[in-house]
Amino acid sequence: MSANCCFSAQDKTVLCIQDTSEINLYNHKNRVKKDEFIGLTNAAAKGGIGFLLHPSFVIDAYSFVPYGFSDVKIWNRPLEKLTKKERNYNLLPIEEKESYKWIESSQKSKEVLEKSKKVIIIQDREGDIYEQFAMIPDQKTELLVRARANRTLLNKVKLFSFIANEPLKGKYTIELEGDKRRNINKREATLEVRFSEVTIQKNDLVSKNAPKSLDLYIIEAKEIGDNIDNPICWRLLTTIKVLDLDTALKCIEWYTCRWIIEEVFRILKKEGFNIEASELGSAKSIRKLSLMMMETIVKLFLMQIAYSIPEEEIEARSCFSDQELECLEYQMIKLEGKTEKLKNPHIQKDLKRYVWVIARLGGWKGYASGRKPGITTFSIGIQKFASIMEGWQLFLDVSTR
After folding, report:
1. In 225-319, which ranges are E strands?
2. Closest by alpha carbon to 55, among 3, 10, 108, 12?
3. Residue 150: which of 222, 204, 200 has the closest Cα?
4. What SS3 class is residue 202?
5. Rounded to 5 degrees, what are φ and ψ at 176?
6. What is the DSSP string of 302-356?
7. Which residue from 372, 366, 253 is spatially nearest to 304, judged by alpha carbons?
8. For labelling alongside 8, which of 35, 93, 132, 233 has CA 20 to 30 A away?
9. How far apart are alpha carbons 289 and 357 in whole angstroms?
10. Rounded to an integer, what distance in angstroms lies between the CA atom of residue 355 and that of residue 303?
């Protein structure tokens, strides 16, 4: 899986976005085999069982074109639950804690992406680990992590209070999408930006061999205004030298790309392949299926970019083999309508030409004036196309005998 990513990311500045999600097989707990490949999940109190995924999704830092996964860590907890106290969790070395997944995945990603020009590893609050800031950064590897710990600085001032009282460096405005499911309205948000260099120091829970202090930069993007429910407040710790507003705004933009990894999980689970509804009888098989689907998800993102950004030309063979392209050409004949409005407007070799076919298979009407197809439509379409390809390959096999 990582080989294609390594090749595509050569000589590029890339974002390596990490996060964790669990595959909960609770609805199949009486059927799935209880072995070393399955364990308790965060829903353990309700009988939740399954395993966890921690992918590292790599995209171009400027065009945001996806290159694939540099690493996908899969593991499970024990079936018998022990408390942190029973495990002496605070006394365990970082290598034996579950949080080591962030460091381990970063190290593996560095190896895979060694031919990249620059690697910016992006993580949410869980990645705010002192040892990681000490171990991972080098001349071409940076960390950009949302701050979780309100650390005490060398001058005894708390980190969050320190940055809140720094001089204002600038403002910017963004459009926030609404979410009817969570009763969130669409709005325009104005954020104030502050940034500064800081020196953080280790506490008693940090590994003994870690340095006593580390020099980092902190960025705060805080929404201003009256009567705002849940205003935005991002505090980002980074090894990138933030010396001006443009660099701070670029770091904030890169951090907002975290939504892409959330899309990966959404497609893998509820609104795409629905991996948690798999009828396979063993967690080991479901793990393998998850990895296969992750590769398909990269294709889905490429399709979305190809169709939603007309000026971005992407080679069709980045998603489909020669045999698949031949099959898609035949499907196109069937899917095109009699009027010009229902003809495929895209030229050969451009991925958009074949994404049009996948979207039509996924239920899209095909009118350019209508709503553009999205990830869910592509997901349905590519699953249908997989079945069509099985028949196509069977036909080729029979016809050549």
Report:
1. 233-238
2. 108
3. 200
4. coil
5. -105, 125
6. HHHHHHH-TT---BGGGT--HHHHHHHHHHHHHH--SSGGGS--PPTTBHHHHHH
7. 372
8. 132
9. 25
10. 6
Cβ neighbour number for residue 308 with a 10 Å cutoff: 13
Q: At 92, list the tokens.
A: 């365990």
Total Cβ atoms within 10 A of residue 5: 24
Cα 251 to its chain centre, rounded Å, is 17
Gap between the Cα atoms of 213 and 176, Å rounded: 37
Strand pairing of 213-224 and 187-201?
antiparallel
Q: Is 362 helix (H, G, I), strand (E, B) or coil?
A: coil
Residue 39 and residue 76 in contact, taking contact as beta carbons nearer than 8 Å: yes
Q: Are 235 and 223 in contact (CB under 8 A)?
A: no
Q: Using one digit for the tens of pLDDT, what is the confidence trace for 111-126?
A: 999 999 999 999 999 9
How confident is the model over 48-83, as pLDDT tens digits?
899 999 999 999 999 888 889 999 999 999 888 777
Contacts of 325 (CB under 8 A, 6+ apart): 316, 317, 354
- CA nearest 302: which of 292, 312, 288? 312
At 266, the amino acid letter reads R
Digit-coded pLDDT (tens) for 18-40: 999 999 998 888 888 888 899 98
Which one-letter amino acid corresponds to residue 322?
D
| 283 neighbors 25 (Cβ within 8 angstroms) | yes
Residue 57 DSSP code: E
332-353 per-position pLDDT tens digit: 988 988 888 888 888 777 888 9
pTM over 0.70, yes/no: yes
Token reading at 262: 């959330």
Distance CA 174, CA 189 (A): 5
> pLDDT-derived band of residue 180, with 50, 70 and 90 as boundaries?
low
The answer to whether the CB of 121 falls within 8 A of the CB of 98 is no
Element (H, E) at 197: strand 187-201
Contact between 241 and 217 (Cβ < 8 Å): yes
In sequence order, the 6+-apart residues with CB closer than 8 A to the CB of 93 are: 207
- In the numeric block, the tokens 């020196």 are attached to 199
DSSP-based three-state secondary structure for 145: strand
Question: CA 373, CA 355: separation in Å to the nearest integer?
Answer: 9
Give the whole-angstrom CA distance, residue 198 versus residue 162. 9
Instruction: Give the number of residues written for the chain.
Output: 401
Nearest to 289 by CA among 304, 262, 269: 269
